Amino acid sequence: MNKYYKKWFLPMVLPAILFFTFVIGIPFIIGIIYSFTGWRGTYFAGGDHFWESFVGFENYIKAFQSDKFINSLIYTTMFTVVAVIAINIVALAFALMLGSIKRGVGPFRTIFFMPNMLGGLAMGYVWQFIFEVVYTELIFSPDGIFHVEFMRYMLQNQTQALFAMVIMTVWQSAGYMMLIYIGGLNSISGDLYEAASIDGAGPVRKFFKVTLPLLMPSITVVLFLTLANSFKMLDINVALTGGDFNTRLVALQILRVIRDTSPPNYGMAQAESVIFFVIVAAIALLQVSLTRKREVEM
């Protein structure tokens, strides 16, 4: 078997390596180079080639001096914190709930997972209708089922829009993360729960002393995915608010740089994306390092 893997390892992996190199690796390196130039999308300011339009760290300085970029970075951080906490709580609650069901669990898993299969942009416009019409005029209006003013016109206020995006993100992502948690829960031996019961542990103590420590590998994966997905969120932001009312997340801010500058400064947009990549990569690596240290060997 080892000879078989050694023989076919390179031919099987080579297409993926080539695909990653040409689709992600090379464009990423080119993007970093362009971030130090006066790239305008179709031409280079100052010359016909990128080395003739080299501007050093000017694009990076402009990015940090941009109020829109800084505000979007702060807003994205707040959105990510709330979204990560909410997704993990809901996903884990779903996993624990389905773990307690003995029969007919398959349809429930399918129902919870289905939103993840839907396009974020298309469903974003559906949720825009829900927030603007269903919530505002029907459910949470003074004449509706429950009068909750905070839930009305959510997309027209910076703070309310943040929670609106979180609601849709949780609805779309919690089912997928739930499956990861279910896999982690299924790997925990039932003997440990029996031993904890003999020692007099109740449900809450079992959760914090048995379930949570042994679920850390799954928590590491889910935290990484939710952090990365929340930081790079674009489609939901475009569909729900379009960045209006100071609700730009960083991904949308980078996209809109070419509209905010004249002529379009693609070099500055690329510099913002490089800064964003470094920040997200550092946070993700730190999170993985911290959570993996808390993983318990079973």
In a nutshell, what does this entry contain?
By secondary structure, the chain is an all-alpha fold.
* Sheet with the most strands, sense and barrel status: none
Report the count of strand segments.
Answer: 0
Task: Please state the overall shape, judged from the principal axes of the Cα atoms.
Answer: globular
Number of helices: 12
| Average pLDDT score | 87
**Topology as a string of helices (H) and strands (E):** HHHHHHHHHHHH
Structural class call reads mainly alpha
Low-confidence stretches: none
Structure description:
With 298 residues, the chain is mostly helical. The chain has a domain at 68-252 and 280-293: Orthogonal Bundle (MetI-like fold). The chain has twelve helices and no strands. It has helices at residues 2-34, 58-65, 67-99, 105-113, 120-139, 158-186, 190-198, 203-214, 216-231, 235-240, 250-260, 266-293. It is globular and about 75 Å long. The chain starts with a helix and ends in a 5-residue tail after the last helix.
